[in-house]
Design goal:
The protein is of the alpha/beta class. The protein has three domains: 2-80, Arc Repressor Mutant, subunit A (Orthogonal Bundle); 118-254, 3-Layer(aba) Sandwich (Rossmann fold), CATH 3.40.50.10490; 258-291. It contains 15 helices and five strands. The protein has a five-stranded parallel β-sheet with strand order 2-1-3-4-5, sandwiched between helices. Strand 1 (129-133), helix 9 (136-150) and strand 2 (155-159) form a beta-alpha-beta unit. Helix 9 packs parallel to helix 13, helix 13 packs across helix 14 and helix 14 (256-275) runs antiparallel to helix 15 (282-291). The protein is globular and about 70 Å long.
């Protein structure tokens, strides 16, 4: 498959060939619709470069590479609109079925689109977001706060213990917002207690929870309970990750200029730090820049 060939040859590719390799791997759907000439024009390259790149990978030319890309895309699109994978067996069949079931859980977000939009609007309007977590949910809170920082949002991850909660309550102002994650791996009673005290001080709290009966969910100004039931019978964290990503992208859309500038500044700082490491090749820095769509 073309992805494997590119990965195996990547270190030996010229800078121009790497531009082609990166585009095909990161924009496979777009690449499937482009001729050699169109692809070259898109990337400001000579069409002959596209042909030579294909031959470098072991193809007779771009037409053969393009056929393989189209076949891959057609297979991916077909699988999106059918249940499971009729050609898969064993673990692959299980993964295909679990993917369908995950998609069904995430599709439930459409039913809650208005409430999710309200949550995004409140996050957007908050001066500072305190993301509260207990136990394992604190790790998820920390990850999300990192991504909020990338798009220029003032946020702090706060573990729901007495000491850290007291510091949060000392610093939080009415224009700030508490956003709590209750995975349901334990009763999350500490989160509920912190929210109760915070509300008594005039703060608003939003909770995403595994169940509306958990204490934090009952205490929240807004609670959104996510589908977590899986075929195994054990509750999953997958919909929490999907919702946090959805809210993050909504915040970007609500203030694209701020997000773009924040990501640009963060990328510039990252580039400077990575550039200090003489042993890191330039194409590794470029790959990081492309991830955040910065030149």
């Amino acid at each position: 498959m073309f992805q494997k060939r590119i990965q195996e040859k990547y270190e030996a590719l010229s800078p121009r060939f790497r531009v082609l390799a990166d585009f095909i791997l990161e924009n496979t759907l777009d690449a499937s619709f482009l001729t050699a000439t169109e692809l070259a024009r898109r990337l400001a390259l000579d069409p002959a470069t596209v042909v030579r790149f294909s031959q470098e990978l072991g193809y007779s030319g771009y037409r053969e590479l393009s056929r393989e890309i189209k076949h891959y895309v057609n297979k991916q699109l077909a699988l999106r609109y059918q249940e499971g994978d009729p050609h898969a067996q064993g673990p692959a069949e299980l993964i295909a079925r679990l993917t369908d079931e995950l998609s069904d859980r995430i599709l439930n977000f459409k039913v809650e689109a208005s409430r999710i939009a309200e949550i995004a609007a409140r996050l957007h309007g908050a001066a500072h977001i305190y993301v509260l977590g207990q136990g394992d949910s604190f790790g998820l809170a920390t990850l999300w706060v990192t991504y909020l920082h990338f798009i220029g949002r003032a946020a702090t991850a706060v573990p729901a213990d007495i000491a850290h909660a007291a510091l949060m309550l000392r610093d939080a102002k009415p224009e700030d917002l508490i956003f709590a994650i209750a995975l349901g791996l334990d009763p999350d009673t500490e989160i509920g207690q912190v929210i109760s005290v915070a509300q008594a001080r005039g703060l608003k709290a939003i909770v995403i929870s595994a169940s509306p009966t958990l204490l934090p969910a009952r205490q929240a100004d807004i609670n959104l309970s996510l589908p977590v039931e899986t075929p195994s019978g054990y509750p999953s964290f997958d919909t929490f990750m999907a919702l946090l990503s959805l809210l993050w992208q909504a915040l970007i859309a609500l203030d694209e200029d701020k997000a773009r500038q924040a990501i640009h500044d963060a990328t510039a700082a990252l580039t400077t730090l990575v550039g200090q490491q003489d042993r890191v090749p330039e194409h590794e820095i470029a790959a990081m820049q492309r991830l955040w769509k910065q030149e």
